[in-house]
Records
---
Amino acid sequence: MSRIFDEDLTYGFGTRAIHAGQRPDPVSGAIMTPIYQTSTYAQDALNQHKGYEYARGKNPTREALERNLAALEGGVHGFAFGSGMGCMDSIMKLFKSGDRIVCADNLYGGTPRLFDRILVNYGLRFSYVDTRDPQHVAEAMGPDVRAIVVETPTNPLMHLTDITAVAEIGHAHNALLIVDNTFATPVFQRPLEQGADIVFHSTTKYLNGHSDMIGGAAIVRDDDLAARLQFILNSAGAVPGPFDAWLVLRGTKTLHLRMAAHDANGRAIAAFLADRLGADQVFYPGLPSHPQHELAKRQMSGFGAMISFETGSKENARAIMNRLKVFSIAESLGGVESLANHPASMTHASVPPERRAKIGITEGLIRLSVGVEDIRDLLKDLEQAMG
Ligand SMILES: *Cc1c(COP(=O)(O)O)cnc(C)c1O
């Protein structure tokens, strides 16, 4: 279990990003946290160890990352996992057969796949509602509901959920609020400070930021919840290796700088697309035309670089995507390089077509993860691709 030092919270975000959870190596003074590539730890004498017994439970590199992430999210305890989905699966092990979870109806595609095709077989039940209106969440609550899972902004339609409002509803019903903060990152959105109980990340995305590993994380404030998560982490063992933990730790050192650059590029590209296609064809919470722009301004301190736009048909989407040169056609998001994705056939292919149609993931929708290349080159690329 990781507990950050209290004094870390008095420092600004950038200082915490670079230092929190990390101390120069006591053996050599190495400024960077070593990659403790070990499975076990020698004891000085029987039952006399240094706090580390076996690396599934605890590893110093992973621990540095967990403390760092806790400090960035304004939490107390962080837990690193081998993937985002491994993390979500472990979070769901907090609940038991018969419990119901109320979920947003526009979650990352892999999340409902895990819920509806695997976890239902263990007696967990999931209800999906449009969480843009907190009233829908209130109506879905009941004595069997143990948690609410939302993602804000969502993937790929950039729907927002009012975290404070939904946290209040959850707490009135003794249910935990779990917020997937992968898109906004703690640079732009701070769910724990707005009432959430668990912040979830696919660290694969912005936190690592360099598209070179897969990982997940959960951050909490409550000590009892942390003890339960640590027990699940050690028992179920969906942990990352120390090298992957180290890569994320290296990534978070520049998170604040990267997010500022992503945000600037994201705004410029959203404005360009809105101008070209009409604002109603572009989904980006930073556009004044976004139906929840006021909530975005209240809840987020930046809008990021995830943008979706409607091209009208799969043929149009295909033609534009195949002409892109700087943007790569790829799944995933959040790296320094720009990516273009066709949700209906790529990231959201596992979402049943009826549900895709219901939430508005059309065949003509393209989702961009805008990187931090020179904005001139990105705009030129889109311009030539759109003809
Ligand atoms: C990628 C992603 C996940 C899943 O994480 P993995 O690291 O791919 O397992 C969950 N939520 C969101 C919003 C994501 O983008």
Note: Residues 83-85, 108, 110, 151, 155, 180, 182-183, 202, 204-205, 214, 216 surround pyridoxal-5'-phosphate (CB under 6 Å).
---
Amino acid sequence: MTDRKAELAANLAKVEERIAAACAAAGRKREEVTLIVVTKTYPASDVRFLSELGVRDVAENRDQDAAPKAAECSDLPLGWHFVGQLQTNKVRSVVGYADVVQSVDRPKLVSALSAAAVRAGREVGCLLQVALDAGVGGRGDRGGVGPDGIEELAGLVADAPGLRLDGLMTVAPLTGEFAGRQQAAFERLMDLSTAMRVAHPAANMVSAGMSADLEQAVAAGATHVRVGTAVLGVRRGLG
Ligand SMILES: *Cc1c(COP(=O)(O)O)cnc(C)c1O
């Protein structure tokens, strides 16, 4: 094994241990939680190592970086998640490789994704990104629809050709009533998921928790955690 692959293997083992412990503490089965490794800013060679180490889901947040990486790794059995703020002019590219877009947060993006998916002959899974710090009718600083906008947006995705409504995603807010209260934030997301599933029972994915707060997400009931730093190391610069 190369040094880098051994490093990734050791980090993955630690993250796996944390997820398993969090599941045990919450009385959940380990299979109820899927690890998505966020590979943003790291090279395709790392994605390849992760695949060899058994990772099945990876996530990226910038199309410029993700598109060439996904192309280089197209022979690998990986699910690709897009988790970044998405401009409509990038949608056609993203639909070319993303199996799931976790950052759906406005009607214009739904229509653009739908048109691109139909054109590409693909079905794209969609999570609505929820901004728990958004005011009424508002949006989050880092994207996301406010809780009061979920119902309308869910209906639009569910009715859009080429799209599949898979569930909800959030990033723990840095401001507002949930600042510093990750578990309360993730529990709120679970309540919003339960409410949405009355009309959309199959949309049962709940994506929450990152390197610093995956335990709180698992405790709250998340089905997917998105872990970058704890597997790949601290990112340099933005990302
Ligand atoms: C970068 C990122 C993550 C992973 O964050 P880490 O703290 O590195 O684990 C998760 N979700 C989103 C949306 C991200 O942009």
Note: The chain has a mean pLDDT of 96.
